[in-house]
UniProtKB/TrEMBL annotation:
TM region positions: none
Taxonomic lineage from the root: Bacteria, Pseudomonadati, Pseudomonadota, Alphaproteobacteria, Hyphomicrobiales
Domain annotation Aminoglycoside phosphotransferase: ranges: 10-203
Signal peptide: none
Protein name per the record: Phosphotransferase
InterPro entries hit by this protein: Aminoglycoside_PTrfase, Kinase-like_dom_sf
Highest rank taxon of the organism: Bacteria
Length: 247
C-alpha cells in the first residue's frame, strides 16, 4: 500500500501530500466527510469539460482523515510569478485562464446564487435591515449558467501556459462569471491590494464587460465571505457589504 508522502501544500481547509505519483488532499479532522465527496464530484463533472483540473482517482479515509486522491499539479506556483512580475502580463494570463473556465456550462454544479443567499442569511455582524437589503440586492443581480471556480486566486494555479493546472474546486458552482471575478477581486484586495483593480480591469478587457458590472457584486460577495471564519477581514468585509460596489 502506498504511504502518504511529504507535504506539498497547506490551506485552511486541507493539506496536500505526495502519494506515489499522485497527490492526496486530506481535509482537516474538523472538516465534514461531505467535503471530500463534494470536491471529488465537482472534479468529476469538470473532467468532461477539458479544463486544466486534476483528475480524481479515489475518495476515502487515509490515516483517519477523509481525502481525495488526484493528479499531482506542477510543482511551480503561478503565484510566485504573479507576485514577482510587475505590469499587465501576469494579470492578463490569469484573467485568460479565468475566462476559459467561464466559457464552460456549469450544469450539474451547485447554484452560486443559492450559496450566496444561504451565506448572507447566516452571516454574523449584519443587522436585520442590512441583511434584507443585501438579499434584495442579490435577487436584482443577473444569474448565470457558467462554471465558477468559487475561490480563484494565484495560489490555486500551478504551472503556467499550457502546463497550468487549477486546483481547489471544493466551492465550484454554476452562476454568473462576473460574481466569480468579483470574488477574486475581493481575495486580492486583502492579499495583494495593489493588484485587485488591475485584475478586474484585465478580465473586463478580455470579456468585453464593464468593470462596474463586476464590482456590482462586491457587497453581496463580501457579506457572504463573513461566514468563512476570516476574523482579520471581518471589519473590512462589513464595510464593503455596506458600499455601493466600488473601492
Amino acid at each position: 500500500m502506498t504511504e502518504v508522502g511529504r507535504l506539498l501544500g497547506s490551506g485552511k481547509e486541507a493539506e496536500v501530500f505526495e502519494y506515489g505519483a499522485l497527490a492526496l488532499k486530506l481535509y482537516r479532522p474538523t472538516a465534514s466527510k461531505a467535503s471530500s465527496f463534494r470536491e471529488a464530484a465537482n472534479l468529476s463533472i469538470l473532467e468532461w469539460l477539458a479544463l486544466p483540473t486534476p483528475k480524481v482517482h479515489a475518495v476515502g479515509a487515509f490515516d483517519g482523515r477523509w481525502g481525495v486522491l488526484m493528479d499531482r499539479a506542477p510543482s511551480s506556483r503561478f503565484a510566485d510569478q504573479f507576485v514577482a512580475t510587475a505590469g499587465k502580463a501576469p494579470l492578463e494570463d490569469m484573467a485568460q485562464l479565468h475566462r476559459r473556465i467561464h466559457e464552460k456550462s456549469g450544469e450539474g454544479l451547485p447554484s452560486l446564487m443559492a450559496r450566496l443567499s444561504a451565506r448572507i442569511r447566516r452571516a454574523e455582524g449584519l443587522d436585520p435591515s442590512s441583511r434584507k437589503r443585501l438579499l434584495y440586492q442579490l435577487e436584482s443581480l443577473p444569474d448565470g449558467d457558467r462554471v465558477c471556480h468559487g475561490d480563484f486566486h494565484p495560489w490555486n494555479i500551478h504551472g503556467s501556459g499550457q502546463e497550468a493546472m487549477i486546483v481547489d474546486w471544493l466551492d465550484a458552482c454554476c452562476g454568473n462569471p462576473l460574481a466569480d471575478v468579483c470574488r477574486t477581486y475581493l481575495l486580492l484586495l486583502h492579499a495583494l491590494p495593489d493588484r485587485a483593480m488591475g485584475y478586474a480591469e484585465a478580465y473586463a478587457r478580455i470579456a468585453e464587460v464593464e468593470v462596474g458590472a463586476i464590482l456590482a457584486w462586491l457587497p453581496v460577495i463580501a457579506a457572504a465571505r463573513l461566514t468563512e471564519g476570516v476574523a482579520d477581514e471581518n471589519d473590512e468585509l462589513l464595510r464593503l457589504a455596506e458600499a455601493n460596489g466600488y473601492h
